[in-house]
């Protein structure tokens, strides 16, 4: 199925990767959201499970191996051009933990970086520097809070 101007929604996956008191973000190299910092992830492949898809996407975009721990949220990302639907993804975002690999941007990400909690909770997180939208901030915070409950030894961030 084509991604742009699809005839039906596409299934996607995203990862809230929490590691050493920080969360991983990727800057999108392609539409939709080109140039925006967001969670690593992408479209599910035919026959692929959600957890396999999220692990594959994180590895492809960031070089990291992750273990999906639990589902954080399912949401719609709908982008319109005039009255037409240009992109429609239903995205399953998972809390993940790092199990290996080396951080490097690749595939659909032109940059990757770890962010401290203060970077997505402050007003500056919505500024052009990170270019985080409110939906991404909400999902990151939900994942962060769940990680704090599961792994209380994590640093709380700044």
Structural account:
This protein is an alpha+beta fold. It has one domain: Alpha-Beta Complex (Nucleoside Triphosphate Pyrophosphohydrolase). Helices cover 22% and strands 41% of the residues. The chain contains 3 helices and 7 strands. Strands 1, 2, 3, 4, 5, 6 and 7 form a 7-stranded mixed beta sheet that branches. A hairpin with a 2-residue loop joins strand 1 and strand 2 (22-28).
Q: How many helix segments?
A: 3
Written as H for each helix and E for each strand, in order along the chain, the element string is EEEEHEEEHH
Could you name the CATH class?
Alpha Beta
Classify the beta-strand content into a percent band: 35-45%
Content-based structural category: alpha+beta
Average pLDDT confidence is: 88
- Low-pLDDT windows of residues: none
The CATH superfamily appears as Nucleoside Triphosphate Pyrophosphohydrolase
> What name does CATH use for the topology?
Nucleoside Triphosphate Pyrophosphohydrolase
């Amino acid at each position: 199925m084509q991604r742009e101007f699809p005839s039906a929604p596409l299934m996607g996956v995203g990862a809230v990767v929490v590691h050493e008191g920080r969360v991983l973000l990727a800057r999108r190299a392609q539409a939709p959201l080109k140039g925006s910092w967001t969670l690593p992830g992408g479209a599910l492949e035919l026959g692929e499970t959600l957890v396999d898809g999220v692990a594959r996407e994180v590895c492809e975009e960031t070089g990291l191996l992750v273990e999906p721990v639990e589902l954080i949220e399912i949401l719609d990302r709908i982008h319109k051009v005039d009255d037409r639907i240009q992109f429609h993804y239903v995205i399953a975002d998972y809390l993940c933990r790092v199990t290996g690999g080396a951080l490097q941007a690749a595939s659909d990400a032109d940059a990757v970086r770890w962010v401290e909690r203060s970077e997505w909770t402050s007003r500056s997180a919505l500024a052009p520097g990170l270019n985080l939208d409110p939906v991404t901030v909400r999902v990151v915070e939900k994942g962060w809070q769940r990680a704090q409950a599961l792994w209380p030894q994590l640093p709380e961030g700044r």
